[in-house]
Amino acid sequence: MSKTIRTALESWDVKNEDAKVYEIASALFPFCRSITGDGLRNSLRTLQKYVALALHEVPTGTQVFDWTIPKEWNIRDAFIKDSNGKRVVDFQNSNLHVVNYSVPVNQKLRLKELQNHVFTLPASPDRIPYRTSYYNETWGFCMSHREWESLPDQEYEVCIDSTLEPGHLTFGEFRLQGTTDDEVVFSAHSCHPSLCNDNISGMAVATRLAKHLAEVPLRYSYRFLWVPATIGTIAWLALNESVIPRIKHGLVLSSVGDPGRFTYKRSRQGSAEIDRAVEHVLRSSGSEFELREFTPYGCDERQYCSPGIDRPVGCFSRTPNEEYPENHTSADNLNFVTAPALAESVQRLLAVVDLLEHNHRYLNLNTKCEPQLGRRGLYAQFGGKGGRLFNEAVVWLLNFSDGKHSLLDIADRSKVEFGRLVEAAEVLVANGLLQKLELSDG
Ligand code: ZN
């Protein structure tokens, strides 16, 4: 039998899946990503080792809806040296030490003057904060409050060897053609430096999911996007307006690597098929989860769900960003995300895709009273639990397969498990009692 999503899930090799996704996260960790520049570009090139994504370059100054692609930022080195020439802050130890998008600087400052350019977290004195200055040309350093407090009052040499010049914004894209052109989009923001749950987790999980889907036959077409948050998604939408109507379902992947419970934020449409599919998968998993209504805050679902775009795109997370104390600090590292949490996210998303792929509508071909199932060998009279469950799936399918109700509609109404309905529907089709409708049929 050829490989399907179902067989991939049934033969899930926990140890191997855990190791594979964690390897990708680890490979992405060192890069100093930003909304533009080589850190982002080289991260996407690294992902090309795992899946054949394409890199796209959008030139500085390109107008994308109400926004303009900014200058490209690149950084080679940065430090603060004390009067003995010792690096007391060193970019080579952590890329969080430099305010992301800092303009170049090379000067000598007293501690008091330096203070205006240093950010710390007094409440978490051992963590380095993450700060950006994307749309405001300035410079700064981030360091642990404990290290800052230990600096004596003397003259310091500060250097940021960066450039902020016309260049490009890079994003990654991988598309799988299905039997229809209708698309499912998975989008992961890819613009934070060494921060694992916030950005690396979504990038790695999207990559593994793409790899799995590349190995199976698909009904929908799938598009994976690795984009800088906000500006990257706006750029993609502005440059692909003709594709937007074909997006039938979508998920933004964010914070999918911490061991917390799953959290799903519904699309603006609220009860779109993707919203109900994710809810069904999380409910069937038996683990704790949380569902939230759409809000115009959060990740890139804000762009997909803006009123003029309004695609059914929700946000799939474990603990959402800004709701765990490690977020936007050096504590969001490779110890905070775990291999099992990352791999379980891939597994749930595969189950969501499996549901979308099988969520057909069927037409009952024998609608006047019930068909005689016994004559066809379909009535499991003495069949025990399995037989009773099969009969239950059959009677619900026959009653609601009027061409209007999908399998998910029937699953939600009957509480019969989705996979059982899929299997029973295939049997009824083989016996000439149901006809499968295609996406285009109504
Ligand atoms: Zn963030």
Textual characterization of the structure:
The protein has 442 residues and is an alpha/beta fold. The protein has an eight-stranded mixed beta sheet, sandwiched between helices. 45% of the residues are buried. It folds into three domains: 5-69 and 168-358, Aminopeptidase, CATH 3.40.630; 74-165, Glucose Oxidase, domain 1, CATH 3.50.30.90; 361-437, Orthogonal Bundle (Arc Repressor Mutant, subunit A), CATH 1.10.10.10. Helices cover 32% and strands 23% of the residues. It has helices spanning 5-10, 14-28, 38-47, 111-114, 145-149, 196-213, 231-239, 273-285, 301-304, 339-358, 384-400, 407-414, 418-430, and strands at 54-59, 63-64, 67-68, 72-81, 87-90, 105-110, 118-119, 141-142, 155-165, 168-176, 183-189, 221-227, 247-253, 262-265, 289-292, 313-317, 361-364, 402-406, 434-437. Bound molecules: zinc ion. The site of zinc ion has 4 residues, from loops.
| Count of individual domains | 3
**CATH topology (level 3) name of the largest domain:** Aminopeptidase
| Alpha-beta classification | alpha/beta
Q: Under the CATH scheme, which architecture of the largest domain would be assigned?
A: 3-Layer(aba) Sandwich
CATH top level of the largest domain is Alpha Beta
> What is the general shape?
elongated
